[in-house]
Amino acid sequence: MSLANEQITTAYAEPSRAEVRDFVALLKPRVMSLVVFTALVGMVLAPGHMHPVVGALALLCIAIGAGASGALNMWWDADIDALMTRTRGRPVPAGRMQPGEALAFGMVLSVGSVIVLYLVANWQAAALLAFTIFFYVVIYTIWLKRWTAQNIVIGGAAGAFPPMVGWAAVTGNVSLESIVLFLIIFFWTPPHFWALALLKSGDYAKAGVPMLPVVAGESETRRQILIYSILLAPLGVVPWIMGFGGMAYGVVSIASGALFLLLAIRVWREREGTQAATAARQLFAFSILYLFVLFATLLGEATLGGFGA
């Protein structure tokens, strides 16, 4: 048993020292904010009407479901989290919280969020939320993450479901428009996370996580980032082509997609030294802005009556 694992085992045997902030950390607030935002866009774009109070409750359920997934992820991954600089301060590997607490917290929130969403919205949205939680925890965290370098590609679907859940909460079904929103996030996820993986490949190697740079090398990772970016850039324009994004969205999606692609090309070309790290860091940072700008523009157009359409 490694020293890190011994330290974790010792920490688990001690009484819980978890504070409110530790339970908040289990929810992965930054990830949750993205889930809430994209789900809100799905709800606003969906045809039909939902009472604001019901809509707020439905959005809260989606947020809690996302937080529950994060808690269960941290429960399962405590051993490898302890080995990585980026994650070793999390409540469970740091010894501030017992694993059982994280498991119970995540399970209660998972079941509660699905049941309440069923009661306030419909069974279709509740079923989608339940499947999203299952996919993230079981398919990605427990199975794919430690087994294949394609973990982010397949597992990324979990982060792409929220707009579909939001859409289904309003309409009771899944439409082509919500599938397009799903696909944008799905194809955005690999270049976003692989850019980070290029910067943290040492951490992943130490933890035994088969991220693409560790398994296939940095050169192949840069090539895959470029391929997915080439697919993502035109896909981001599809809402405008289909008509549920206005002229403003068309301009924003074309410009931001072109910049995303240029940064991906730079990551592909820069192979060594500080320039390579800078290129990966810039793509990672811009990828967050890219997704936010696309969905914010869709939300703004829908809220303001299709400005620029």
Automatic annotation (TrEMBL):
Keyword annotations from UniProtKB, A to Z: Cell membrane, Heme biosynthesis, Membrane, Transferase, Transmembrane, Transmembrane helix
Enzyme nomenclature, EC number: 2.5.1.141
Q: Which ranges does the record mark as transmembrane?
A: 31-50, 56-76, 102-120, 126-144, 151-170, 176-199, 225-242, 248-268, 280-299
Q: What is its main location?
A: membrane
Report the locations given in the UniProt record. Cell membrane
- List the membrane topology term(s): Multi-pass membrane protein
Give the pathway.
Porphyrin-containing compound metabolism; heme O biosynthesis; heme O from protoheme: step 1/1
Q: What is this protein called?
A: Protoheme IX farnesyltransferase
Q: Which gene encodes it?
A: ctaB
